[in-house]
Automatic annotation (TrEMBL), chains A, B:
This is Thiamine-monophosphate kinase. It holds the Pfam family AIRS_C. CDD domains: ThiL (cd02194). Keywords: Kinase, Transferase. It comes from mine drainage metagenome. GO terms for biological process: thiamine biosynthetic process.
Amino acid sequence: MIGAVLAAPDGRVVVSLDVLVENRHFRRDWSSAADVGWRAAMQNLADIAAMGARPTSLVVGLVLPADLPARWVTGLARGMAAACAPSGVAIVGGDLSAGDEVVVAVTVHGDLEGRSPVLRSGAHPGDVLALAGAQGRSVAGMALLQAGHPRAHLDLVDSYRRPRPILAAGPAAADAGATAMLDVSDGLLRDAGRLALASGVVLDLIDPAEAFRADLAVLDGAARLLGVDPLEWVLAGGEDHGLLATFPGGADLPESFRVIGHVHAATGPEVAGRVLVHGAAAPVTARGWDHFRG
Amino acid sequence: MIGAVLAAPDGRVVVSLDVLVENRHFRRDWSSAADVGWRAAMQNLADIAAMGARPTSLVVGLVLPADLPARWVTGLARGMAAACAPSGVAIVGGDLSAGDEVVVAVTVHGDLEGRSPVLRSGAHPGDVLALAGAQGRSVAGMALLQAGHPRAHLDLVDSYRRPRPILAAGPAAADAGATAMLDVSDGLLRDAGRLALASGVVLDLIDPAEAFRADLAVLDGAARLLGVDPLEWVLAGGEDHGLLATFPGGADLPESFRVIGHVHAATGPEVAGRVLVHGAAAPVTARGWDHFRG
């Protein structure tokens, strides 16, 4: 590509990269081109927000089969632009190549605006665990598509196609003293486990029937339709890209966050990286999404 | 990926992105994994140098077939690191996914160190056209591999596998007042045409038998072996990633640059974007590499 110049008024730039591959991260019969573009952009914007930064710009690498209609590519660009516009994020450049399957590689940059970057590794015993954003909707939407119900519970299907994380919650969390943060992309328990491992702590979710009451109510109809326990969607679902953060006990949480658990020291039988649900080991069915297992 | 924080002491960051796809940009039977990594990194470093900046960091997106040996991936990383080390460039992060064919998407960042970025569009009539680096070697090496002569003229095959652009020539050119610059990635005439078009000028290469005497001498043996006119390699070859720049007439060129032509106004029958060779229209056989035509 032709190079681009990004402003970096902070003297630092935050960068992240995600690669999406057709039939692994999206299906062209489940999502429109614009949906794929939206999701590719949004999950990258969430990565930047999760560091406490404001996303500023994308560069996009595309691999496109020769028989892909041109309108698919323009649709992809339109969806990316739609996801970026409300945050004022610019798509500053890219590169494309022919190939056998569609690949969308997005690199995103962000501005810390003077904040210290929030890492995964800073959670301390005594902190509270909090979440900004919905949980379980995207995976429910995917399950509906998988089961051949694209038109039932359109709000959930739309959450899968166009996740809407609260990007402003990231910088707000950093300003409120968040000690650790990441976005929930592979599943709540799995990503909580990553935060716990990086921080050397144990996380204990409060009773999820309480903590996720509103999410469970939204999921109830679809869960009945598919014969699924909606709690599994809440605990194992990713790709809503909610922001999972820890804050010192007693901190004033930003409005968009709700407490969903507590941070404990890793002592005795509880090893660092473990995630408990209401004091008990997490149910084994509650696994996150693993792109290599499919 | 987990986000990374880049230093941006200049208050700006230069960014570029290139995507390489197996069997389109590289072949695993022609290049080792380390060679592919070297080339993926180096062509990105050259993009940054061509803006007058010093490359500082890479982020790397990989798509890997499930049956790809792990040692291929470690080899790729080793080759990237080897290409980056002499410039002090760090690989700061990345993302990977399974997929049907190998894709390497590299995003590179650079530091302008207070310089104004050099664009393609600033060439003026009266400027001289100059090149830093070898020309024609990479395409000759590829032709040798294509013709089944991997062991003849190993220096040329190595130039294809591990191009060695003079990265320091980019910032040096900017300091010397370069008015336009790009790296020769798709062919000398083709990339010169891009510079001419962006600048609204005509470029006239001086007699290539003179200007590229040293390159032609290096290519002579391989050209005889394959029955090719080495001038075609010089004029149409890309991927040596030499830096092609224009400087005001009378400017002191940095040591690594040699004059290869002149910039004329686009008047009369000479339309903007045209590239002449010694006053004549370029031979039609001298086409650059087009990834979609293969």
